[in-house]
Amino acid sequence: MKRMIWTACIMLASVAAWAQESVKPDAFEKGMKQPGVQLLDVRTAKEFSTGHLPDALLADFTKKDEFFHRLESVDKTKPVYIYCLSGGRSTAAAKWMRENGYKEVIELDGGVMAWKQEGKPLSGTEKSGPQMSTALYDKSVASGKWILVDVGAGWCPPCRKMAPVVAQFVKENKVKLVNVDGEHDTHVMQKINAITLPTFLLYKDGKEVWRKEGIVSLEEFKAAMK
C-alpha cells in the first residue's frame, strides 16, 4: 500500500512538473516579467516583424545554424520563456533546450495566437521610414580617427550580449560608435557585405582596418587598434 502511495506521489509530481513547462498567456506574462528571465521568440524574422512580445530575442527555429548560434548567447542557468506562432516550434525547441542543459524553459501555450486572443499587446511592428543611406554611412565612418561600426539588432541574442562590451570599449578608447540596424538598413548591409549579426567593423581615418562577426572580447577590440 505504501509503495502504491509513493508511486502515485511520484506520478503526480511528474505531472505537476510537466504542467509547469507550458502555461497560459496570463501566467506566461506574469512569469516573463520576473528579474533575469530571457524571452525567446523562435519564429521567422518576417513573423517577428509583424509584432512580438516586449523585449523578446529572436532565434529562428527553422534555420538550425542560426538557432544554435544564437542560443550560445542565452544563459542556461537563467529561466527562458519561449514562444512561436501557435506552439509547435516552441515545443520542439524547448524539448531540445531541456535536453541540452537549459535549467528552466517555459512555453507559451498556444503561442502568439493565444496571446492575441487574450487581448494582450504586441510590440515592434514592422519599421517605417527611410533607411540609413550609403552616403550617410560613408560620411559617418569618415568623421573621426577611430570609428567602430556595430551592425546588429535589438532582438539578436549575441548583439544584446555584446552591448556592454561595446559600450566599455568605446568609452575607454575614445572611439566613435556608428550603429547599423541589421534588420532595417539593408542598403548599407549590402554595401559593406555584412550578412551576420552582429558584425563589427573598425575604421581608421576613414578606411576599414578590421572586422569580425559574432562575439568579440574587449581585448580583441583593443588589439585591433594596434
From TrEMBL:
<feature type="domain" description="Rhodanese">
    <location>
        <begin position="33"/>
        <end position="124"/>
    </location>
</feature>
<keyword id="KW-0732">Signal</keyword>
<dbReference type="Pfam" id="PF00085">
    <property type="entry name" value="Thioredoxin"/>
</dbReference>
<protein>
    <submittedName>
        <fullName>Thioredoxin</fullName>
    </submittedName>
</protein>
<dbReference type="InterPro" id="IPR036249">
    <property type="entry name" value="Thioredoxin-like_sf"/>
</dbReference>
<dbReference type="Pfam" id="PF00581">
    <property type="entry name" value="Rhodanese"/>
</dbReference>
<feature type="signal peptide">
    <location>
        <begin position="1"/>
        <end position="19"/>
    </location>
</feature>
<dbReference type="InterPro" id="IPR052367">
    <property type="entry name" value="Thiosulfate_ST/Rhodanese-like"/>
</dbReference>
<dbReference type="InterPro" id="IPR001763">
    <property type="entry name" value="Rhodanese-like_dom"/>
</dbReference>
<dbReference type="InterPro" id="IPR036873">
    <property type="entry name" value="Rhodanese-like_dom_sf"/>
</dbReference>
<feature type="domain" description="Thioredoxin">
    <location>
        <begin position="113"/>
        <end position="226"/>
    </location>
</feature>
<dbReference type="InterPro" id="IPR013766">
    <property type="entry name" value="Thioredoxin_domain"/>
</dbReference>
